[in-house]
Amino acid sequence: MAAGDITKTGRVNNDIYDHLGERWYTARDDPIALLRAEARARNPWIAGAIRRAFPSGEVKVLDIGCGGGFLSNYLADAGFTVIGLDAAAESLMIAQRHDATGRACYHLGDAYRLPYADAAFHAACAMDFLEHVDEPGRALAEAARILQPSGLFFFATFNRNFISWLFGIKGVEWFVKNTPPRLHELSHFIKPAELRAMCEESGLRINELRGFAPRFNRAFWRLLVTGVVADDFTFQFARNTITGYIGIAEKSCAPHQAGASETPTWRTFPR
């Protein structure tokens, strides 16, 4: 069975992202605060890796499944040319509202049919996204298509096993206030070996893969008692990938044989 053929059971509740509003940036009694904490840990790492790979000139970055713009707005502030794409219109409006630079561009679109030309971007990012779609391999292939040769693909997702189910799904349901049903489904989690196979099928080579998990500090233990994700709750990189992991894949310089998708139109969110 190919990596992209893993049987999916249940349906991930992606509808919640249409109704968060300003809670994207303000809520602590909600798992969205965990996404903010993740972004604080990984955004500088992503920006640094992009800048090292492309130290001069305009650098174009696509943030796939950008949500409320935590990464897109950070990268725009760092000087990159950024497009954030998402299927939730409400999230995109919030992201645009919180773009302090006025330079990030937000598009409503489909990750399976990215509305951009082949090799249009230097880097593409999929943070906490691949576990939310039924066909991650298809989305990954589209990300590879729009990357230039030697372009970088950044990913962060969850491993699929009992421990990740216990901590990443049930633990959040038990201990974080206002966790909606089906925020995640175990069948949609992706083993590192499966993601590596998907990348290779699309002409990408993973050159860095690290664990990514909460830091067991005071904020972590307070969360277990209060159900609130405080601003000092933090994530860290780790060697162990048993729950969550993050990494970088590079597009091959050789032409990939997969066919390009037709290019649809998209909706741009006005300023």
Essential attributes:
disordered C terminus; single chain; Rossmann fold; 271 residues; globular; nine-stranded mixed sheet; alpha/beta; 8 helices
Describe this structure in words.
The protein has a 9-stranded mixed beta sheet, with helices on both faces. It is about 30% helix and about 20% strand. It has 8 helices and 9 strands. It is α/β, with parallel strands linked by helices and about 270 residues long. The chain is globular and about 50 Å long.
- The rounded distance between the terminal residues' Cα atoms is 46 Å
* Count of discrete alpha- or pi-helical segments spanning 4 or more residues: 8
The biggest beta sheet, please?
Answer: 9 strands, mixed
Find the structural class using helix and strand composition: alpha/beta
- The CATH homologous superfamily name equals Vaccinia Virus protein VP39
- Give the topology string: H per helix, E per strand: HHEHEHEEHEHHEHEEE
**Counted beta strands:** 9
Number of domains: 1
Uncertain stretches: 256-271
Strand content: 15-25%
The second-level CATH architecture is 3-Layer(aba) Sandwich
The radius of gyration over CA amounts to 18 Å
